[in-house]
Fold this protein.
Amino acid sequence: MEMHEATLEERRQFYSEEWNKRELPDFILHTLSLREFGFDLDGTGPSHRYNQFMTVEQLAEYLQNRAPYSVFASVALYEQPSMRKGWMKSELALDIDAKDLPLKSCGCASGSVCERCIDEARRVAMEFAETMSKDLGLRNINFVYSGRGFHIRVIDDAIMTLEQTERGQIVEYITGGVIPTDVTMALGYSKVFRERLARTFERLGEEHLSKTRGLRKSVVQKLMAEKERVLGVIRGGKLDEISTLGGLGPKTFRQLLEFLVRLNSGFTDGKVTIDTKRILRLPSSLHSGVSMKCVLVRDMERFKLEDAVPKFVRERGH
Ligand SMILES: [Zn+2]
């Protein structure tokens, strides 16, 4: 699969022939006039902010006339979106970008994507959503394929009025992005934290681990050789046994834990989640950088990249 940049001609074709308002998710359609729209008109960045559309027809007309490079809408609802004033509430959003995954099993460089790392991003998104639903009781969780990864957009009433700090705590919990304070308690580490830590450790290679400050080469090799046992210890919550397995002192063990936790938090961009005035790529629009459609995904298990390929790419004949 090759991902080319779309030409102006292709963007025009997309917005005049293919774009369909029925591909807008209901949660956006029903709140359209309360959202701030942002545009990147020519590929230089989303500098056209503070736009408001009272009807979907107005939006359609704008898209056909301007054939923008990128289209974004706010996660927030405002009384006056065209002034970004009168903030009412905001979705809880997570951005899992395949190009920024901290550990990739594919060979593609950081900053680029392939089908394999997009699939990894898909699985990470599903893990996060499962935790939000099981542990946090959230029900209205929507997935969007963004063109190079996935957005999770949660619109449960209970979370839409949360402040930044609380959103930050949610993202830390979901990703296993902080060492829990229950570490000294007999109960051990929380289940989510252990699962995320194990997931990260499982994907680690010697080359990653050797970047941990204070970790000697012999220790790295020992931890890698004993990977299965270390994973068992992490899943079982008896993390201090890692010290025994690898022969680590308490300080080195802490450094190892901090290294893993930093990787954990890299699976999503926490800045997106805490920013209650963020604009996100509009589902139904074109990601011109890769010539893919940004689409609402109803069934993540069955999502295929073909679902997001615009007509003009299929007509390119490869
Ligand atoms: Zn890749």
